# Entry
Amino acid sequence: MSQPAYSRVLLKLSGEVLAGDQSYGIDPIKASELANEIKIVHEMGINIALVIGAGNIFRGIKAASKGMERVTGDYLGMLATIMNAISIQDALEKLDVETRTLSAITVSQISEPYIRRRALRHLEKNRVVIVAGGTGNPYFTTDTAAALRATELKAEVLLKGTKVNGVFDKDPEKHNNAKHFENINYSDVIRKNLRVMDMTAITLCKENSLPIRVFDINGKGNLKNILLGQEIGTIIKE
# Structure
């Protein structure tokens, strides 16, 4: 097997991926499939941290648009990320992959508090680290949390696993003529307002020269092949 292209990565999964073929909730079969992909990477000796969104359960912005207080909605979204994190932890542990969930919101019965040095120590011990609870603050998305944690934990790349294979000029699920970018720089993503990640996350990655690889997480073997150096999806960098 080829040498991995990276030694430490942060994988950002959208919550919708965990729903599988359902439109809502957590599909244990899909969680198991994702855990298998992560296990393969883990066995390659790559340190891997995860941040998982909450769109399969709750969206604070959507709730706010219907009258809920935005701060309340965002905290509910953070709680939903913890539910997703525990489901992936369970699936990984069933595969004998040592995993730790660390949360920015204290839920001591099911997770450890997020402390940067503790997270780094878990990674050094070759444990998969799942970081839940977003940033612990309202008004920040899980994309921004992923960019922040990737920077804090010294990841070499932020991998954004979605349902489409990369960055397009418009939604490829709605437009057959959507243009795919194999590579694009941070400034063009911001200028073109490409909604692959929120602008705060893109800016944070730009300021820290952290490349972002956007790819289809549902493609079997995609995660492994990216970490072996294959050009899959879209790379965002300077």
